[in-house]
UniProtKB/TrEMBL annotation:
GO terms for molecular function: hydrolase activity; metal ion binding. Keywords: Hydrolase, Metal-binding, Zinc. SUPFAM superfamilies: Metallo-hydrolase/oxidoreductase (SSF56281). InterPro entries: MBL_Glyoxalase_II, Metallo-B-lactamas, RibonucZ/Hydroxyglut_hydro. Residues 13-195 form the Metallo-beta-lactamase domain. This is Metallo-beta-lactamase family protein. The gene is ycbL. Transmembrane segments: none annotated.
């Protein structure tokens, strides 16, 4: 069984996910921890649950989702993976981080550039990769079909969608990604978004004002 802990970090209220199995093998998705107390919250949870961190992944490379990449990678000595088409998005963060007040941001170098059709495997968990651009040019979602889990990043939120006005974003592309990729998942798939509460595919198909069918 997959367990998911949500920690909300930084002024942009980004959801960081600690995803782990019964054996304690764990991957960290989109660590937004920047301040020392946020880093401590993450490490305290991992220590309390006696988890073994195996992997760090990003759904995309926007600043609020990557602030803790370096900390996680160096603290746990784990590989870091991001989709190949968002490597440039990640690289750009260092140039604009001070504009957001993040003067101590330290970049982390990816160890693997993912492609659509790849999967990430941690312990007994397997997550397939869906390429869902529109919010960011190389945005991906992580999907576990067995337990009907989707880590959607900033593509689909409860009753909302990600911004499409950032560099590399496109509204039509975003809606297309949702309708042709995410909405093909089973209705009872639980969606863990980059911001805000969880939702389900069924709820968004019926009620989302931007993309309901």
């Amino acid at each position: 069984m997959i367990h998911i802990e949500t920690l909300t970090f930084n002024p942009l209220q980004e959801n960081t996910y600690i995803v782990y199995d019964e054996a304690g093998d764990c991957m960290i998705v989109d660590p937004g921890c920047y301040e020392a107390y946020e880093q401590k919250e993450l490490t305290d949870f991992i220590a309390k649950k006696k988890l073994t961190v195996r992997l760090l992944v990003n759904t995309h490379g926007h600043i609020d989702h990557v602030l803790g990449n370096y900390f996680v990678k160096e603290t746990y000595k784990v590989p870091f993976e991001i989709f190949h088409l968002d490597a440039a998005t990640l690289q750009a963060v260092g140039a604009y981080a001070p504009n957001y007040g993040f003067f101590q941001y330290t970049p982390a170098t990816p160890d693997r550039l993912l492609k659509e059709g790849d999967a990430v495997i941690v312990g007994s968990m397997k997550f397939d990769i869906l390429f869902v651009p529109g919010h960011a040019p190389g945005h991906i979602a992580f999907v576990n079909t067995a337990e009907k889990i989707c880590l959607s990043g900033d593509v689909l939120f409860r009753s909302s969608i990600g911004r499409a006005d950032l560099p590399g974003g496109n509204y039509d592309t975003l809606i297309h990604s949702i309708k042709t990729k995410l909405f093909l998942l089973p209705d009872d798939t639980i969606v863990y978004p980059g911001h805000g509460p969880t939702t389900t595919i069924q709820f968004e198909k019926k009620h989302n004002p931007y993309c309901a069918l």
